């Protein structure tokens, strides 16, 4: 998949680990700087870190002469996440009978969703959040025959909840209803209040133990700044404990402190509070979200009808809600996190991908989704093409091309200085260029969405830099803003067009898509500046 969904798929794990483990030139995001650590390092280490350590070991043992390259740097963490994604399949298969859903219908809905095919095969912390929700739902759901929960469940629930919280503090929004459901199950199944308290104490103690593990690992990492100095704290054990206490790092608290500030969220973009409900959910789940809304309204309507009947007849409280529209608890599992996440002004579609599990279980009950099969298939094919292939789809192949260029035999035999200027693209992950930190002959400049004047000024400055004799300047820019460079007063030796590339920030004009120049509107240009001119 060449599509580039969001910078966080690189800068929340692979980019950081490539710098720490492979000693490559990378861009460290602010969340991983020692002055403002907001992300735990544990999961990046366990995912991208493990895969990068493996390919590094293979190369050091001469089992693979060139294991470390742009392709393996991209694919190896994604392969691990793809393997992890089958936790969703196992969870759906196990949960379906309990929630009165057809297992195979639920599995087909899950596996055929472009959310699973695209988002869950990328290195997002949101994908891990979805896996933790799947594990939690399995742990809180008794077997088909009923009965009490097994003894280890309380401990495991505490560990999974704490781990999910350190991965993303928003996990508490997803975990709220499963935990309340578990608490209700425990309270109903146990006659002794002492046994109930015992279950809750086990949960709290295991959650606290897990939190201590994460805090210790993060404190070592962020106070030492890097794996090379991980064991640099010296002195007796008590001295070590004292130093760690002074420098203790609790990344979820820093995360919450930052994100609860409306000014900070506005820096990342503010959205109307209905964005998740009216836009992002439909973009991710299509007709399944609409069916869930319809079923929810029908359930509420029947409940209020029952309430009026009971009130009119003075028969006391209404009975349990009829299941004619499906299981209302699954709807709560879906809509309650949706409501909590909608309270924040910054709303991105990927924040909702954990909700696919309760949604497919609900949609697979009573053959609700069967009659919409053609729409579901077409929707997911289009979604997979758009986000998996087209969206910013030229940037990764561009980095592959540039990596081969700067590491070509000609470049190695005759060292040259390369300046790679990216404009109107997503942030390029430097790690895919496979440049060692000690290598200073390659410079990456990210202009983001700079205005025309700023862009031209920077390009002209690089083109007229006569202090460098053997310098090569490349400008990487989408075809939709290619014409901007004609006003910059520079010429180009050659240009390479990478197709396809769709920039939603600079979308193609519809008339151009029906002209002979349509391919350039859906492409990314690599322009080699002619400094001789």
TrEMBL record:
Pfam families: Glyco_transf_22. Its EC number is 2.4.1.-. It is a multi-pass membrane protein. GO terms for cellular component: endoplasmic reticulum membrane. One of its GO terms (biological process) is GPI anchor biosynthetic process. The chain crosses the membrane at residues 103-120, 127-144, 156-182, 203-222, 277-297, 377-402. Its main location: endoplasmic reticulum. It comes from the Eukaryota. The keyword Transmembrane applies. One of its GO terms (molecular function) is alpha-1,2-mannosyltransferase activity. It is found in: Endoplasmic reticulum membrane. The keyword rRNA-binding does not apply. Keywords: Endoplasmic reticulum, Glycosyltransferase, GPI-anchor biosynthesis, Membrane, Transferase, Transmembrane, Transmembrane helix. Pathway: Glycolipid biosynthesis; glycosylphosphatidylinositol-anchor biosynthesis. Belongs to the glycosyltransferase 22 family. PIGZ subfamily. PANTHER family: GLYCOSYLTRANSFERASE, GPI MANNOSYLTRANSFERASE 4. This is Mannosyltransferase.
């Amino acid at each position: 998949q060449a599509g580039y969904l969001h910078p966080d798929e690189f800068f929340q794990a692979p980019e950081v680990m490539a710098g720490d483990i492979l000693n490559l030139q990378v861009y460290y995001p602010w969340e991983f700087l020692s002055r403002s650590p907001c992300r735990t390092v544990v999961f990046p280490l366990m995912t991208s870190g493990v895969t990068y350590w493996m390919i590094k070991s293979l190369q050091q043992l001469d089992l693979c002469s060139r294991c470390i390259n742009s392709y393996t740097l991209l694919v190896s963490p994604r392969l691990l996440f793809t393997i992890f994604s089958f936790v969703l399949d196992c969870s759906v298969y196990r949960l379906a009978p309990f929630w009165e859903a057809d297992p195979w219908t639920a599995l087909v809905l899950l596996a055929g969703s472009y959310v699973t095919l695209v988002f869950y095969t990328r290195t997002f912390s949101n994908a891990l959040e979805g896996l933790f929700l799947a594990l939690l739902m399995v742990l809180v759901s008794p077997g088909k025959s009923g009965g009490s929960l097994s003894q280890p469940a309380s401990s495991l629930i505490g560990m999974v909840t704490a781990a999910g919280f350190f991965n993303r503090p928003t996990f508490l929004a997803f975990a709220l209803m499963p935990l309340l459901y578990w608490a209700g199950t425990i309270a109903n199944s146990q006659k002794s209040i002492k046994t109930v308290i015992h279950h809750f104490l086990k949960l709290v103690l295991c959650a606290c133990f897990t939190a201590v593990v994460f805090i210790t690992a993060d404190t070592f990492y962020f106070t030492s700044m890097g794996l090379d100095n991980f064991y640099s704290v010296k002195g007796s054990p008590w001295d070590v404990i004292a130093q760690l206490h002074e420098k203790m790092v609790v990344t979820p608290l820093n995360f919450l402190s930052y994100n609860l500030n409306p000014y900070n969220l506005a820096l990342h973009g503010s959205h109307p509070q209905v964005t998740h409900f009216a836009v992002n959910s439909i973009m991710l789940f299509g007709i399944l979200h609409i069916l869930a809304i319809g079923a929810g309204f029908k359930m509420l309507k029947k409940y209020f009808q029952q309430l009026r009947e009971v009130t009119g007849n003075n028969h006391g409280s209404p009975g349990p809600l009829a299941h004619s529209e499906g299981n209302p608890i699954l709807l709560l599992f879906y809509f309650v996190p949706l409501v909590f996440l909608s309270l924040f002004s910054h709303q991105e579609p990927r924040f909702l991908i954990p909700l696919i599990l309760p949604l497919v279980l609900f949609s697979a009950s009573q053959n609700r989704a069967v009659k919409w099969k053609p729409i579901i298939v077409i929707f997911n094919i289009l979604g997979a093409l758009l986000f998996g292939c087209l969206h910013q789809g030229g940037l990764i192949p561009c980095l592959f091309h540039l990596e081969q260029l700067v590491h070509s035999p000609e470049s190695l035999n005759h060292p040259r200085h390369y300046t790679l200027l990216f404009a109107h693209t997503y942030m390029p992950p430097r790690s895919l260029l496979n440049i060692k930190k000690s290598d200073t002959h390659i410079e990456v400049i990210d202009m983001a969405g700079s205005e025309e004047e700023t862009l031209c000024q920077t390009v002209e400055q690089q083109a007229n830099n006569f202090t460098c004799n053997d310098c090569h300047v490349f400008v990487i820019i989408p075809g939709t803003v290619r014409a901007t460079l004609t006003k910059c007063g520079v010429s180009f030796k050659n240009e390479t067009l990478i197709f396809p590339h769709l920039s939603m920030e600079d979308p193609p004009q519809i008339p151009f898509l029906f002209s002979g120049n349509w391919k350039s509107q859906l492409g990314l240009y690599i322009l080699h500046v002619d400094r001789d001119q």
